[in-house]
Amino acid sequence: MIDSRSLLGIENLGRDEIASILNRASQFSLEKPQPILSGRRIVLLFYEPSTRTRVSFEMAAKALGATTYLVHATASSIEKGESLLDTGLTLHAMGAEAIVIRHPSSGAPAFLARHLDILIVNAGDGMHEHPSQALLDAFTIREAKGRIEGLKIAVIGDIFHSRVARSDVHLLSRFGAEIVMSGPPELVPDVAVTLAPGLKLTRDVDEAIAGADVVMLLRVQKERLGGLPIFVERYVAEYQMTPARLARAKPDALVMHPGPMVRGMELTDAVADSSRSLVLRQVRNGVPVRMAILARALAN
Predict the structure, then answer these.
(1) Peptide bond connecting 260 to the previous residue in cis, omega within 30 degrees of 0
(2) Which among 97, 217, 292, 296 is placed 20 to 30 Å from 273, CA to CA?
């Protein structure tokens, strides 16, 4: 049986549990952290490259007093062909009490959680989910706007390949946001509206942005396109966020991006560096939110 303190995704996480994590993150962002995880051992198991997620989980763990151990797929027995399960069993045998895992295969964290008596935190699995990113995005929106309910949020870009989009849509729609998605058919297929109740889809990005409170941009994931006919010039002309395009949103609309940003593709420098950009605030908020996730998992 999977331990309920593991965090495998947003889709099956209750609204009260989400609110509890966000509220605890608010406390951590305001107060000097206490070493409530002193002596606990957390392994960061990353099969894919990461900067923001890996470093913020490490900083979060250390801020709470835990000891962290980083395992990269390219610098361990994984490179020699060791299976995911054997790697997990090995880390557990060494005394790991929690594993924060990023993996290219959807369902890898849930697989470990089913087979190991250890807490698992999903730091991104394939095209499935990225729950901690959704939690910090919700935290950032609530911090900046004071609420989530009733906001119009335009989600633009590579939604099909985005685990961030899936987690964000599940969370934000559950808290009463109006979500409008936009992007080319190759990156936002019609079936995307089935991700959550009440989603809207338009190919006209200006229509999606009109009256939006938040514009959430997603990276075009070239590494996952597999030969799809996506051309930079076409995407830039039709979907890139520019100051002129952003002017169609509400005057106080804010721009978000989970990173890494591809400047000149998803957005211009003028948008990325403007006072309306929450990108660096999202990065900063990753630490208290991930502190709340780890405290939920390991604090007595």
Answers:
(1) yes
(2) 292
